[in-house]
Amino acid sequence: MSLGQHLVELRKRLTLIAIGILLGAVAGWFLSPYIWDAMSAPVHEMAKAQHASINYPNITAAFDLKMQVAIYAGIVISSPLWLYQIFAFLVPGLTGKEKRYTFGFFFTAVPLFIAGCAAGWFVLPHIVTLLTSFSPQGDATLLSAGDYFSFVLKLVVAIGVAFVLPVFLVLLNFMGILTARGILKAWRIALVVIMLFTAIATPSADVISMFMLAIPLVILYFGAAGVAAIHDRRIAKTALRIEAELDS
Description:
By secondary structure, the chain is mainly alpha-helical. It has 8 helices and 2 strands, in the order αβαααβαααα. 81% of the residues lie in helices and 3% in strands.
């Protein structure tokens, strides 16, 4: 394909992606009340014990929030479509081996990202309860709806991305940048970083939530090291075989 044909193909894919997100946002508009009820449930639960509420600081805040929820829901709902369009545009230019690696990483990263988001959603009530508990007794906690939505979104996405990071370690190993020995050599640093991250992400009074989040990350880290070790061993055997063939 010429450059012009590639651009036409790209425009076609982007148009389909935009249509998919738009249709998903329409569905998200009708689902937004249920999504927002689920997101704001920790605050409403906490309000039973102390004065806390979610507020809309101006006349358009409620509408803006509903639009944001609808758009993000549309992106999630239409994710199979736009992910397919991206891969459909990229895959024809890859070799057979590159296609296997790409699809392997893709189908591994997506479930891990979803699992990470689910873990973030699980620890959300603990974080809301602790952070709002610093309010002096007798004072009310007034949360801006937009700020609270951004906080929940960033928290869930951050933990989702953290679950995907071991996949990038394996990718660096397959690219020849990082060895399994190098990954295992840094295990102490990795454990410290994981514990610090989970302590910040789950600042609850008990450590149960922190360990429930840290254990999967540690398992994923050593799992990435194991996959990298298998790949390094396979590369070493191939190199020895080629060297033996050349000697013979």
